[in-house]
Amino acid sequence: MRKLTYKAVLEYNGKGGYGVFFPDVPGCVSCGDNFEHALEMAKEALELHIYGLEKDNYELPVAAGELPELEKGDLITLISIYPDLIKDTLNNAREKTTITLPHWLKSIAEKEGVNCSRLLETALKEALGLAS
User: Fold this and answer.
1) How many helices (H) and strands (E) does the chain have?
2) Residue 128: count of CB within 10 angstroms of its CB
3) Fewer Cβ atoms within 10 Å of its own Cβ: the N or the C terminal residue of the chain?
């Protein structure tokens, strides 16, 4: 399973919280109310950022060995993610969509216990040649 690891810089805000950025991943930033929360949020930010880069066919940043300059109270840690797991999770997440049906048809379907979402999913897969 593919694993990516990047350095995260946690900048202490003086009030218990941390801002987070990844020197090798421009634009990927986060924050947390405390150290543990900042680590959780950093991991989530990195997962979503890498997912977006891959989805848009951008080249992934290379983790450099250089260390950025730190201010007093700042910390550096490594954050590892598994992009294929995140991709699978996000691509298979259920999304609500609105459809329009005649009232009488919806009433009969409900009375008969028809799961309209499942039926639509099955029909779409079949129509698109994706049925397994």
Assistant:
1) 4, 4
2) 8
3) C
Whether residue 131 has pLDDT greater than 80: no
Contacts of 77 (CB under 8 A, 6+ apart): 7, 8, 10, 39
Kindly report whether the global pTM for this prediction surpasses the value 0.85: no
Give, for 32, the enclosing helix (H) or strand (E).
Answer: strand 29-32
First to last CA, the chain: 25
pLDDT-based confidence at residue 132 (cuts at 50, 70, 90): low
**Which domains are seen in the chain, by residue range?**
4-91 (3.30.160.250), 95-132 (no CATH)
> What are the tokens at 5?
């690891």
Q: Which residue has the tokens 């992934």?
A: 60
